[in-house]
């Protein structure tokens, strides 16, 4: 990728404070260094996220959804409560995994140390990382057994909580409110199509979905349900969402159909 105007970008980046470059990240046994992360950011990230980290790189006008504005310190994919800063591991995981259905790719070709360095540099764009203590990650309780009953309860919650108004009655992202939604910066944003498979914005495991429902996706209309639902109810919604997967012949949707057929065939 050719970096247009890279000389100007480098001038801006080199003007960053020494204090900013002293920023570090801690991911397990890795310690990331912002000064090392700067060069990686210029090479791989600046064309989308911009020299100031505000999401206004030269590619940004052509992207939908828009690149993350790091200066706001508002991140979708977190293990922390809504409104809180992400952990260093959250940022590291996002860089490693990418953001599905966006222009943000997985950066696993970079070494683990390089990704940790990028996390440290990204944190220099907002003073919140220096001013606020890190929050603890939400606790994800063990997943209960998946069953047709759990899915049924989840389907009822999906309706009663008006999830369908954005995601649609069948989870296709075409609810009556879908075309009216905007993100925190006023850009139009479409609800996720839950039928598109096991890939979701912040990971596709059951625990990832539980986390998303608990923490919300900050900067988007997707709220946290941590106060509206008990943990067991959140698991029910997770199990229901997993039935909407139409792309896998081995998805849980087929398990539920099989369970239902077995139940119907039993003698009464």
Query: In sequence order, what are the helices and strands, one letter per element?
Result: HHEEHHHHHHHHHH
Approximately how much beta-strand content do the residues carry? under 5%
Q: How many domains, as an integer?
A: 2
User: What portion of residues is helical?
Assistant: 25-40%
Measured between the Cα atoms of the first and last residue, the distance is 66 Å
Multimeric status of the protein: single chain
Strand order of the largest sheet: 1-2
Number of strands: 2
Report the biggest beta sheet as strand number plus sense, adding barrel if it closes.
Answer: 2 strands, antiparallel
CATH structural architecture of the largest domain:
Orthogonal Bundle
CATH class of the largest domain: Mainly Alpha
Question: Care to describe what's here?
Answer:
With 268 residues, the protein is mostly helical. The protein is built from twelve helices and two strands; from the N terminus they run ααββαααααααααα. It has helices spanning 6-14, 18-21, 34-44, 46-49, 88-97, 112-122, 128-131, 148-160, 164-167, 206-215, 231-243, 252-265, and strands at 24-27, 30-33. A hairpin with a 2-residue loop joins strand 1 and strand 2. The termini are far apart.
């Amino acid at each position: 990728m050719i970096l247009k105007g890279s000389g100007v970008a480098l001038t801006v980046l080199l003007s960053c404070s020494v204090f900013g470059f002293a920023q570090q990240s801690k991911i397990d046994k890795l310690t990331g260094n912002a000064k090392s992360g700067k060069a990686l950011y210029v090479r791989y990230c600046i064309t989308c996220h911009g020299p100031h980290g505000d999401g206004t790189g030269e590619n940004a006008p052509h992207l939908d959804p828009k690149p993350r504005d790091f200066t706001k310190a508002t991140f979708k994919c977190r293990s922390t409560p809504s409104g809180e800063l992400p952990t260093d591991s959250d940022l590291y995981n996002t860089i490693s995994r990418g953001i599905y259905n966006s222009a943000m790719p997985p950066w696993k070709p970079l070494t683990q140390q390089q990704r940790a360095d990028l996390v440290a540099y990204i944190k220099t764009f907002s003073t919140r990382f220096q001013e606020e203590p890190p929050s603890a990650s939400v606790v994800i309780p063990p997943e209960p057994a998946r069953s047709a009953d759990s899915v049924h309860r989840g389907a009822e919650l999906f309706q009663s909580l008006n999830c369908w108004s954005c995601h649609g009655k069948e989870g296709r992202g075409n609810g009556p409110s879908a075309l009216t939604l905007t993100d925190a910066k006023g850009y139009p944003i479409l609800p996720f199509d839950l039928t598109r498979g096991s890939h979701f914005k912040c990971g596709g495991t059951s625990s990832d979905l539980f986390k998303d429902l608990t923490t919300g996706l900050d900067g988007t209309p997707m709220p946290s349900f941590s106060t509206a639902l008990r943990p067991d109810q959140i698991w029910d919604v997770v199990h229901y969402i997993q039935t909407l997967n139409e792309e896998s012949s081995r998805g849980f949707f087929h398990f539920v159909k099989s369970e239902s057929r077995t139940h119907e065939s039993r003698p009464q």
